[in-house]
């Protein structure tokens, strides 16, 4: 494939040449715990080695009033930055640092009120900020300039002023958050004054060759800074020669799901608001928007929509995306599926990846560290869900003779059912990639093959990896009252989400979906039913709809789609009984009632019960009793998420 446009150098500022058009815009990893450390350096160095031309390092807090994932005022920062520069330079990658102050978007570490343009509350922080005085403004402007000067001294190529996503400069720019009546509020010129003063102070402290750029974001919420007004903001900055490039994103804390669009969003979903801004300036421009392949990036540049394309999540999933694609191996690129489960939600507190276990562990789990074995072993992997597929793939990469046995007639396990849900087809992308990889590597795949002890013995493996997954419990137990199984749970019209996605479509007039987990599984079941015209009542013991998907930016988009149909949510509610025609529910906290708690009857032709699964460990336990070399991974070990299955599959395959 021809990547003529994306594989072309570009000059930014007076003299900086960037070798291609692929950029990694700033994104929080939390690896550094405030400082530039070895883990964060390894993370960026891996993407540099993979062909990325420019990385913008995650938010660097310029002032103690706004603690960030990196903080300029921590000890040891100079040594860390110089080590970063030394690590990426051999690969030809340029690096900018994003300068950041959260304003009202983050609470202060000392418990004090956040600083902002006005006393407008951030919807996700809910702490009233104090409007900044002129002395405060001058102090923050000086902090930005000091930080930029240090970045140049420490070897960075430029800075990226974060004036988007409801952070402090954006709070001054937006009429939604700037209610001031002084020189910093009211007219567009006044609302731009804070940003202009920051950039003027930076320009006064750095050399002419040091690149200075700005990140902006069209805000589609009512009263926000929309694309039309943002073009005027960019024009004001450009005509004053304050910036060398424009980095265009989307969203705000009032439209949070648009900042990191999930798999329901198409590639380039931000272009409708970004392109008008990009085409209004003569400066180099960057756009983002869930671009997954180098072909998609090339198309953006070929069409003249922008000069550079941001590919953060795609290069989290595969650090070598650029190199592989330019070398003619685009099929070998591990796809980003846009699930946001590990990168945005960060369940471990740091950025991860559902499909790439090496993210954040580049020094131990990278595929580039895998060495081929001198003596091949015969490896049996039982179960071809994500954990089993990854284990088989990695073991084959190392040169082992691998047999992959799957009881079902096709590969995928839980992945194939996840991909059946509306707006969740991205799961099919990683399944397809894993399938083609195991076949490409010569894994012996045995479908429709259920293995017992004697079957395993007959195969004669040196090691057995059990990845037999998990199944629904079918016990009607809810976590809020495990001693009281649901009466009527055994009725024929009560199914699990696995049953729902496995069975042919049926005409269902009224359904109740019971969510005992709080993850996306029940939401997916509800959406499938609503898409078929079913009236759905959603019952959850949690305080909100799918709360554990909120951090992955999935909850609000799912609700928006569901509410186009006949859909109702009942929070803090549990099921007491299921009859042939109704589901009887009561408050989840009914133990607090001295008398009988209030009950409601919800009409239901179908009941979908979503609760914790149970591991299929029987084969593993039996093999352990026989003293075999056996390992259990994925949901067979304990039911969890895709990232856990992939990580354990990677480690099992690597340790064969």
From TrEMBL:
Keyword rRNA processing annotated: no
Keywords: Flavoprotein, FMN, Iron, Iron-sulfur, Metal-binding, Oxidoreductase
Annotated Gene3D superfamilies: Aldolase class I, FAD/NAD(P)-binding domain, NAD(P)-binding Rossmann-like Domain
Regions crossing the membrane: none
Protein name (Swiss-Prot/TrEMBL): FAD-dependent oxidoreductase
Organism of origin: Parasphingopyxis marina
GO MF terms, alphabetically ordered: FMN binding; iron-sulfur cluster binding; metal ion binding; oxidoreductase activity
Family to which the UniProt record says this protein belongs: In the N-terminal section; belongs to the NADH:flavin oxidoreductase/NADH oxidase family.
Taxonomy, superkingdom: Bacteria
NADH:flavin oxidoreductase/NADH oxidase N-terminal domain ranges (all copies): 8-324
Cofactors demanded by this protein: FMN; [4Fe-4S] cluster
Residue ranges of domain FAD/NAD(P)-binding in the record: 378-619
